[in-house]
Amino acid sequence: MIKKKFNVNRSDQPHAPTPNLRLRVAYGGLRYEISVNSIATFGEVKKVLTAEIGLQANEQRLIFRGKERENGEYLDRCGVKDRSKVILMQDPSSIERRFIEMRRNAKIQSAHRAISDVSMEIDKLTEQVSAIEKSITDGVKVPEVQITTLIEMLMRQAIKLDGISADGDATAQKNLQGKRVQKSVEALDVLKISNGKIKPAVVTTKWETFDPPPNMSPWELFD
């Protein structure tokens, strides 16, 4: 049994002394006991119960003597006495709304996790793009297959992003990662052109660079 005391006064009689009533509230398998003024309304009782159990007032239905009571009805005028029993039920429509909200939140969290995974892969790929850009800027020719493979890997991440169903903030994150992929692919397309203009390094053999010793005829090297 949980006991708490709450005082609620009728607004049109702020200075009139009013007795407190102890209400026994049954909510499913739980039992609560609260203290309110006898001239409180059932709407005010709902506010007390919101603080007690966390269920919002618009989600509550209060049953007294087999009848659902309206927010504006006063306890004393409805015959509520000390230790009277009131049944609290959750409004069915609010249960459905909460279920929908829970599913929506779960969907958003799942989208955030999926986008985060793709983002980490894109981070790795953009590092490779930077490495290729540095090589080409330094005049070092990069194998073309390395560039085309990297483009394909980036496009796979773009496909993954397209398959993620996102709402709210997740949509913004999804779009941001999509722009990163697009920017990297465009950069590689430009680098591919620059890379094609770089002449491959010519490797010479040792005999082409070998000079005969001084005072020795080149023909003497073959004796």
UniProtKB/TrEMBL annotation:
Assigned keywords, A-Z: Chaperone, Coiled coil
GO BP annotations, alphabetical order: protein stabilization
Chain coiled-coil ranges: 108-135
Ubiquitin-like domain sequence ranges: 19-89
SMART domains, per the entry: UBQ
Pfam families with a match to the protein in the record: BAG, ubiquitin
GO terms, molecular function: adenyl-nucleotide exchange factor activity; protein-folding chaperone binding
Xref: InterPro entries: BAG_chaperone_regulator (IPR039773), BAG_dom_sf (IPR036533), BAG_domain (IPR003103), Ubiquitin-like_dom (IPR000626), Ubiquitin-like_domsf (IPR029071)
UniProt GO cellular component terms: cytoplasm
Domain of life: Eukaryota
Transmembrane is among the record's keywords: no
SUPFAM superfamilies: BAG domain, Ubiquitin-like
Name the record gives this protein: BAG family molecular chaperone regulator like
Originating organism: Quillaja saponaria
